Amino acid sequence: MNKNTAIITILATLVILLSGACGTTLYIPNTVNTPLLEKKNDFKVVNGFVSNAPEIDYDLQGSYAVSDHLAVMANFNFMNSSIEERENHHNLVEGGVGAYASFWPNRRGVHVGRLELFGGIGQGWARDQENALNLFTGAYQRYFLQPGFGIRTRILDFTLGGRLSKVHFSRFRQTSGGQLFPERNFGFGTYEPVFTVALGFKQVRFYMQFGDIRAIVNADNYHAVNEDGLDAHFNFGFILCPWKEGPLIDRPIEFTEADYRRQEVERDKDAPYQEPRDQDGEIRQALIVPATASAISVCLSDAGDPDQDIVNVSFQGAYLAQNLELTKTPACFDLALNQGEDNLLYVEALTDGKSKPNTVQIIVREGKKERTFYIRTDVGKVEEVVFRSR
User: Fold this and answer.
1) Residue 201 and residue 109 share a domain
2) Distance between CA atoms of 243 and 111, rounded to whole angstroms?
3) Is the separation of the CB atoms in 91 and 137 below 8 Å?
4) Which of 55, 69, 296, 379 could be 81's S-S partner, Cβ–Cβ 3.0 to 4.6 Å?
5) For the residues of 57-69, what is the DSSP string, one character each?
6) Spatial separation of the C-alpha atoms in residues 23 and 301, rounded to whole Å
7) Residue 289: inside a domain, yes or no?
């Protein structure tokens, strides 16, 4: 296949996908809502279009995380077109609830892996009039279950998902060639595997969803309300969703006691040793924190208004973070303590920010117990926090 043939094939495929259906279309599946939420208060708003419809078909979708693992969603789909004798009307309202999980944290504390499962119910109304002699109307209820797995990054998202649906049509009326057929009620089941990719920066992204629909139960009933609809579809639009990340955290870098001694010697060359003193001239003592657990979590943040304070953080001979900018969003580290020993955490101030001194808030979590401490330090000084394990 040469280059020109490939281009023509791609363009022809897009024309087919975007041309929509030309037969009876009372049932038009909307875009599968794949929120990819990370934590409580995350949200996602989608405004897009459905391709396999006879006229312009709009999607408006939203989702919100009510807790760290529970979320809700609402979807609206509407198409209203009247051209001479041809009319197409389709409206769908649905809601759902689901569970989600996030994993694989990156170096800025964002969990890029996402897993979700939603279920819900919707109500739809449709009218398709080809001309004065051919008219189809009906209302339907849809029950759906949709799993999804995805990766979300600062610029690119992708999701593998699907939707399993049970659809029940009621008050289906058909007039063909001027003849009115008896009203019918019937149902069918479908499955829609989809692949969604979104590209943008942080909050705003352009998405494309590629999918297929298969009637897995009562296929004849499905084709009665989607006579010539395309099984493959391509939907697109825009996404608004938050992107919250912390400061960059370097991976731990091991260094030895000899490296510490060498740093101390280099520091002593420039300035004589002085015992650290507070603003009243008293000798500043190390912060001693008793601990009974073998593992704790320590979170550091700016104790005041963030003003570009930057620190190095090390624990037991390994850097936890270098050039860490303190903000209101805590930088958290899980620490394993040696029982019966003093476990040492060092905080070295690299800058004072816009106002002195450099004040650090330290939150120590030990199981369900949480304690808060504050330390002050100056540029070039190292504050010591001792976790005294018993």
Assistant:
1) yes
2) 11
3) no
4) 55
5) EEEEEEEEESSSS
6) 62
7) yes
Structure tokens at 297: 């979590």
Helix or strand (DSSP H, E) at 151: strand 134-152
Residue 29: pLDDT over 60: yes
Classify residue 248: in a domain, yes or no. no
> What end-to-end distance do the CA atoms of the chain give, in Å?
73
Q: pLDDT tens digits for 309-342?
A: 899 999 988 899 999 989 888 999 999 998 888 8
At a CB cut-off of 8 Å and minimum separation 6, what does 152 contact?
36, 38, 110, 112, 114
Token pair for residue 202?
Answer: 């942080």
Q: Is 202 left (phi over 0), alpha (psi -120 to 50) or beta?
A: left
Domain boundaries, position 34: 21-240
Spatial neighbors of 205 by CB under 8 A, at least 6 apart, are: 157, 198, 199, 238, 239, 241
Each residue's pLDDT tens digit, 133-152:
889 999 999 999 999 999 99
Shared domain for 287 and 230, answered yes or no, is no
Question: What's the mean pLDDT when you consider all of the chain?
Answer: 83
Q: Rounded to two decimals, what is the model's pTM?
A: 0.63
Question: For the chain, what is the domain count?
Answer: 2
The length of the chain, given as a count of residues: 390
Query: For 16-20, 84-88, 117-121, which range has the lowest pLDDT when averaged over its residues?
Result: 16-20
